[in-house]
UniProtKB/TrEMBL annotation:
Pfam families: ABM. Keywords: Monooxygenase, Oxidoreductase. The keyword S-adenosyl-L-methionine does not apply. This is Antibiotic biosynthesis monooxygenase family protein. The lineage of its organism: Bacteria, Bacillati, Bacillota, Bacilli, Bacillales. It comes from the Bacteria. SUPFAM superfamilies: Dimeric alpha+beta barrel. PROSITE patterns: ABM (PS51725).
Length: 160
């Protein structure tokens, strides 16, 4: 199954809204998501869905954790997510998650949707978050392995 992500300006989204795209904004920027077939275009990125829970459209606050991964690091990176505990799904305010493998680029996206921004912030200070990230920064953490991440990851957020 695939997911298509469009990035652009908020004023450019009118045509997308009527064609099955779920549109989110932040300031003057916009992100649109479509889990059905989409025509390729300059602003459309294509991903393979590795794991999914919940309905995207039910969320109001989206967090895109964009993680560049080298070709050599893909197998290890994906295995970490395939074996995840899934604790985030039990958190209050959680709506949906998509683990997305890039088709063309090297940047994976961990997309979570929440009822609101407060729910996401509360998760970040929860025991479930600490458990999910307990190996980060340690010798067991994937972030300490050489040749996995070619550049830093970054987070973007959008609201409905």
């Amino acid at each position: 199954m695939k997911l298509y992500k469009w990035l652009g300006k908020d004023h450019e989204t009118d045509a997308l809204k009527g064609n099955g795209w779920f549109v989110l904004t932040n300031d003057d920027a916009a992100a649109a998501i479509n889990e059905h077939e989409a025509t390729s275009g300059d602003q459309i990125e294509e991903y393979e869905i590795l794991d999914q829970k919940g309905l995207l459209e039910a969320g109001s606050f989206a967090v895109f954790n964009n993680i560049p991964v080298t070709e050599d690091g893909r197998e290890l990176f994906e295995s970490r997510f395939q074996n995840r505990a899934g604790l985030v799904e039990k958190e209050p305010g959680f709506v949906a998650i998509r683990i997305l493998r890039p088709i063309v680029s090297d940047t994976y996206v961990i997309l979570t949707l929440w009822e609101d921004e407060a729910s996401f912030i509360n998760w970040q200070s929860s025991q479930a978050y600490s458990h999910a990230h307990k190996k980060r920064g340690t010798s067991e953490g994937i972030d300490k392995r050489p040749n996995i991440f070619p550049r830093p990851s970054y987070v973007t957020t959008y609201s409905k």
